[in-house]
Amino acid sequence: MQNKNIFLRVFNFYYEGFRSMTLGRTLWLIILIKLFVMFVVLKLFFFPNFLKTNFSTDEERSDYVIEQLTKPNN
Amino acid sequence: MTEAFDYSLIDWSRAQFALTAMYHWIFVPLTLGLGFIMAIMETIYVRTGNPEWKRITKFWMTIFGINFAIGVATGIILEFEFGTNWSNYSWFVGDIFGAPLAIEGIMAFFLESTFIAVMFFGWNKVSKKFHLVSTWLVAFGASLSALWILVANAWMQLPVGMKFNPETARNEMHNFWDVLLSPMAVSKFTHTISSSYLLAAIVVIGISSWYLLRKRHIVFAKRSIVVAAVFGLITSIFTILTGDYSARVVAQNQPMKFAAFEGLYVGQTRAPLVAIGVMSTSPEDPDNENIKDFVFKIEIPNFLSYMAFQDINAFVPGIRDLMEGNEKYNIPSAAEKIARGKLAIDALAEFKLAKEVQDQAKMDEARQILDENFRYFGYGYFVDDPSRLVPSVPITFYSFHIMVALGMWFMMFFAIVLLLVYKGKISQSKFWLTIGIVNIPLAYIASQSGWITAEMGRQPWVIQDLMPTMAAVSRLDTNAVITTFILFGVVFTTLLIAELKIMFKQIKIGPKQEGGH
């Protein structure tokens, strides 16, 4: 019972906090748009992990990097 | 070997990383410093019970919130770039980067995000003391976030506490404490955060000065100036002391960067410090005995030797000593390092071949050669063009001197402001209030100059002596990098405009008696 009250109080704390925001709403909107642009647009379409995308095992990745480090003109 | 690299790709990859890092750093220092300033203000409120201090705290908390919201997660883009544009580097650094960044994610992020909610939503809902503790924890949490990324950066400048594994081509952490407490990590963290605190103090004084010039919110502005000036004076002294320590660490571990700080081509004992100088535009030629390095300079005798080694008689190596070597002072030449680096690179290739045919004897032999020469591994890439081992001296020299000069100026400015406050003349001093506003962009210039000094001065290395920038980049299409460079330019400029617009609006509104966040 006591725990439930604590959870409820924490929920209400955040709920009322978010509801009473004024400037905070604009800032949250900016944060959400920014996170969308970063993680959905940039990460998915422009920033694949080079080694993870091109090689399937760590051994292949190691071999590729060693090749790059020892024979960069290949 | 240098001709094997596509320098257009390397330059665009560097430009892209520099753009994102510099934009990210516009937001970070104000968050770091303002956290402590508002915590001090709230402490005064809790101790005195004076509601004016609550009003003051809440206003600066709003400015903190705007800056935090716009800046948060802008650093994540740098991590995207590590995986995409700098894949050789990311693989090579292995756990060394992963561990500090994971700790940052777990510890500091949760500490910040939990207590930020209490700080913004908790007024009149939690006790005054709990709220105050939350504000202090937000301030400490922000600095803690900075600690881990700065430790990672410091490792790149002084790689310690690891062992290179030739089977995986990765550096494996052997001693976490060596990584965390290396002199470079200590100096980088203390100097970076103290300079960020200084920047925030300048911003608070600047905005408060604007109110005083407009004769608005007089009490609020005066009190804000007092807190910021005291905080700024203390942190600027700390910034100068940590800067002095940083210079010593650089002199001992990155002598080429240190020589570039001062445009020192020919090493000398009792070396003077160039306080003010205009560099010659003639081509740099470290081999020229009579090199005309400066058109004009004002020097402080012996001070460079003292700054580097705390001994006015110490020898400070110049660029020529580091390139040609200096037997008297036991400085190896670039040619010697290049030869040893080439041995290390060839040994890694031999190790791989021997491993493929399971020839244990050859693997052991190659490993021994690699271990003996690994500290010079990166030099092996400069066989055909050793001149690339010298960073851009003018950029490093000017950015270093701009940072130092502005740091000194800010310390004097804080002292002058406190004197005016003490004499009760601050609100009438139009000249100094105007200077207070002008100082805001100067503080950002100083902060960015610090990073330019650190990162341009360490070129050509992405990891000192082990991996040059050119070997770190992924083989991507240059046009793809140019596209993302432009994309980031647009995204970050939009964010900066949004920040400035919202912040200017809130500054125009000024502190409120009560209200939401």
Task: Explain what the structure shows.
The complex is a heterodimer of chains A (74) and B (517). With 74 residues, chain A is mainly α. Chain A has helices at residues 2-19, 23-46, 50-54, 58-70. Chain A contains 4 helices and no strands. The radius of gyration of chain A is 23 Å and the shape is elongated. Chain B is mainly alpha-helical. Chain B has one domain (2-254, 392-509). Chain B contains 18 helices and 8 strands. In chain B, the strands form 4 sheets. Chain B has a two-stranded antiparallel ribbon. In chain B, strands 3-6 form a two-stranded antiparallel ribbon. In chain B, helix 6 (128-157) crosses helix 8 (183-213) and helix 10 crosses helix 15 (393-422). Classes of the chains: A mainly alpha (74), B mainly alpha (517).
Please describe the structure with a list of short key phrases separated by commas or semicolons.
heterodimer, A: 74 residues, mainly alpha, 4 helices, 81% helix, 0% strand, B: 517 residues, two-stranded antiparallel sheet, 8 strands, globular
In short, what is this structure?
With 74 residues, chain A is an all-alpha fold. Chain A has four helices and no strands. The chains are: A mainly alpha (74), B mainly alpha (517).
Largest sheet of chain A, in brief, is: none
What proportion of the residues of chain B is helical, as a percent range?
55-70%
Specify the helix fraction band of chain A. over 70%
Characterize the largest beta sheet of chain B: strand count, sense, and whether it forms a barrel.
Answer: 2 strands, antiparallel
Give the DSSP E fraction of chain A (strand runs of 2 or more residues). under 5%
**Range of strand content of chain B:** 5-15%
In total, the number of strands of chain A is 0
Approximate shape of chain B? globular
* Number of self-contained structural domains of chain A: 1
- Oligomer designation: heterodimer
Q: How many helical stretches of chain B? A: 18
Q: Give me the side-by-side strand order of the main sheet of chain B.
A: 1-2
Q: Supply the number of helical segments of chain A.
A: 4
